[in-house]
Amino acid sequence: MLNEVTGDMTSLFVFATVLGVKVLRTSFHLEDIAKKACTYSISSTESLSFCMADEYKKKYDVQHFQIRIQDVPLDVDKMMFKDYLNKVDKVISIRYQQPRDLYHTVHVTFENVATRNKLKDLWAFAIGKHSYRFVPADITNENYLNCFQYRTKLTNLPAGSTAFDLEEILLNVSAKTCFIPRKEMVHTKENALPLLTSLQMTTCSVI
């Protein structure tokens, strides 16, 4: 019975939201006792039991697909942003990480694991006039660095330029993403950093 291990709990039973799902959570002094608690049924009328937090995370990752969207401006329209993502797949969790400089990193969990294949050839979302770069949450460091292997820089763009304004150029060189950094002070010229997929494309220059 679960009563056999409640004396070893280090916290009371609490309802919490973990990875976007409501769960009943507690903790124990020892890992062995926690594992023992997982063998007991919580209810005599329903088939409910605890599971270890790391096992729960693994099961969750297998069932869903998570991405990390980078360099999202602090003033982004969060409602519009989420509405767009819901068109890709149902969003079951979205978290804006504590901002660094002028940007958020946004962690998104989609309901269906099949969304991984749906997005496998995309590196960015085009939302409104802007481009938002993303990577799978479980991307390896090697693959992440490969994403930045080939890139070029466009300079002296008019102030307020967006990825939408550069669409024709980006399509001509098959750019995967385009990031136009924001600056705290207003400048008359801006720079864009398109990421390209082959070394040959980096030889293209745009004036």
CATH class of the largest domain: Alpha Beta
What is the number of beta strands? Answer: 10
Remind me, CATH topology of the largest domain? Alpha-Beta Plaits
Structural class: alpha+beta
Approximately how much beta-strand content do the residues carry? 25-35%
Q: How would you describe the shape? A: elongated
Which ranges are low-confidence, i.e. pLDDT below 50, for 5 or more consecutive residues?
198-207
What's the helix-strand series?
A: EEHHEHEEHEEHEHEE
Characterize the quaternary organization of these chains.
Answer: single chain
N-to-C span: 74 Å
Protein architecture, described:
- With 207 residues, the protein is of the alpha+beta class.
- 22% of the residues lie in helices and 29% in strands.
- It has helices at residues 31-37, 53-63, 78-88, 115-118, 141-146, 167-172; strands at 14-18, 21-25, 65-73, 91-96, 103-110, 124-127, 130-136, 154-158, 177-179, 189-195.
- Strand 1 (14-18) and strand 2 (21-25) form a beta hairpin.
- The longest helix is centred in the first third of the chain and has 11 residues, at 53-63.
Concise synopsis of the structure shown:
The chain has six helices and ten strands; from the N terminus they run E-E-H-H-E-H-E-E-H-E-E-H-E-H-E-E. The protein has 207 residues and is an alpha+beta fold.
